[in-house]
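Support request, please re-run this one:
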Amino acid sequence: MKRQLRAGARRLAEQLAPTVMASISDVPRLRAEVRQAQQRAATATKRTMALRHRVEKLERRRHAAAERQIRQLQDRVASLETELRLERQLNRHVAEVIDVVQEVLLPATSRDDDLLREALDRYRDSF
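Re-run finished. Output below.
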């Protein structure tokens, strides 16, 4: 009897509100679709997290490589600055030697002995 009553109520509901009854019968299918969508979303979230992790790892590597390269370039600049300073000192010594040689090679009449002694003293003091 209960079944007959329910069947009659269902037919009445289908006649009075067919759209509602069709919607009610779609509920299990819609729930299954929602579960599938949730599973796809969870999978996509996992993939997104894995990709983010990869990107962060690559960024850390790139950052570390850039820092290494910067340190190497800073070391190279410091080395070149030291070489430049030594080169300037050498050029100064060469200029002083040229001054002394020039004074020595000049004829005695046009040579200034005091200037020669001063140049020789400067040259000796530089070492």
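The CA atoms of residues 45 and 125 lie 76 Å apart. The radius of gyration is 47 Å.
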